[in-house]
TrEMBL record:
Its EC number is 2.7.1.12. It catalyses: D-gluconate + ATP = 6-phospho-D-gluconate + ADP + H(+). CDD domains: GntK. Pathway: Carbohydrate acid metabolism. GO terms for cellular component: cytoplasm. GO terms for biological process: D-gluconate metabolic process. GO terms for molecular function: ATP binding; gluconokinase activity. This is Gluconokinase. SUPFAM superfamilies: P-loop containing nucleoside triphosphate hydrolases. Belongs to the gluconokinase GntK/GntV family.
Length: 178
């Protein structure tokens, strides 16, 4: 545990910040990593180029498209667990089977599901600049999402509060559990 983490009083965790496009994964994950001194990986950056081309062209990914991406996400998580270094990954992790793949080999992964209304998401994606994901893919993202069940290791937060409030809520949750 480094000085910053010790100060906040949160033990290292291995988090996947999940949810549909535009829900705030990057915003929350990068904020957590900065505040807690943990490693951060943008899951979008692990997509094979063919996946990015497909999404950019407005086509939803299939299970087959996602398989190599999820494998890379899993590898990144495994390396962080081996290093015993707190870590935060963004990954939509839309289906239960994807979450099982991410946490495979018994990794102690926790998912943070950011839930945001379809209307707010559509508005955000329309306004977001410099990202390959078009707003037109939102309906397929929402249709594909399998909301994590109570039997899954998930922390649920609303993505409609200010990001600073979401970060405070999560850090308080971690402090209370440690
Ligand atoms: N809680 C929030 N309230 C309002 N806007 C937000 C919030 N979280 C993120 N945003 C904005 O919404 C857009 C999508 O956020 P982003 O973090 O890129 O989501 P994701 O990584 O899930 O696609 C960005 O323009 C971001 O600034
Ligand atoms: O599984 C998928 O269909 C994609 O991975 C998708 O869920 C993801 O959301 C994109 O990578 C867009 O990136 P943002 O989520 O950052 O908008």
């Amino acid at each position: 545990m480094d000085a910053q983490t010790a100060h906040i009083g949160v033990r290292p965790r291995y988090l996947v910040i999940m949810g549909v496009s535009g829900t705030g994964k990057t915003t929350i994950a990068s904020g957590l990593a900065t505040r807690l001194g943990w490693r951060f990986q943008e899951g979008d950056a692990l997509h094979p180029p063919a996946n990015v081309e497909k999404m950019s062209a407005g086509q939803p990914l299939t299970d087959t498209d996602r398989a190599p991406w999820l494998a890379l996400c899993h590898e990144w998580l495994r390396a962080q667990v081996e290093a015993e270094q707190g870590a935060v990954l963004t990954c939509s992790a839309l289906k239960r089977a994807y979450r099982e793949q991410l946490a495979g080999e018994g990794l102690p992964i926790e998912f943070v599901h950011i839930d945001t209304s379809a209307d707010a998401l559509a508005e955000r994606l329309k306004r977001r600049e410099g990202h390959f994901m078009p707003a037109s893919l939102l309906p397929s993202q929402l249709a594909t999402l399998e909301v994590p069940g109570d039997d899954e290791p998930v922390i649920r937060v609303s993505g409609e509060k200010h990001p600073d409030l979401v970060l405070e809520e999560l850090i308080r949750h971690f402090q209370a559990e440690d």
